Predict the 3D structure of the following.
Amino acid sequence: MSLTESQAVFASVHETAINDFVAAFCRARPRYLNYGSPAFTPITTVAETQMDAIAFPGLAGGIEWRLRLGIPTIDLFKQSHPLPPELALGPGQFSLQTEAELCIECRKIRIDPKPPRPPRGKDNPNEPPRDDRPHPIAELTCFRVRVFAIGHLEQVVTTTGEDAIAFAVDAVEIVDIQPAELESFLECLLFMILQAVLAGIRLPLSALRADAFPLALTVGPVIEDDQIKARGTL
């Protein structure tokens, strides 16, 4: 059987090229992998994305935190890289491996002997401003984990209106964290984070045909034989 099967055109891209694209995207836009509250990320830049601190009563400025993700490695079916036994890579799926480092600022607070004051804002304009200077690494309490995931492809659109594919996460696994409830909590947290991060990394379908010819997609894109494949008409 020909590569085009019943269609006129066949195009594909190997997982090696997919990983080259993902690595190049993440190096050019590291803000997709690096997030922090104002004490650690004063503003959003090409390198980092600023997000709010975690508000909590009695903690001025909230709980400061930082998240750093490694550049993910993609493995298209059939499986080439080992996975934890809880995950199985099936036809049409991809697996992903990366590292995640989550940090918080662990600081001691001073109890104010005066009655509690309302949160700083419209009702309390005289509250001293929070110190938003970057905090030294020594004040961070961090942990790092290896993250494994499996997922599937979804057809999406780029910011320029071009058809593209995105990697949708179906399940996440972290190995050997006790108790089991803590492992499930962290897996849920990283599952939501990875979904959001990967949704922004979009591979234009033009990459499959290397801009060599027009392609009206009728079949795919699908994952087969370590490749993303598409078939269609001119």
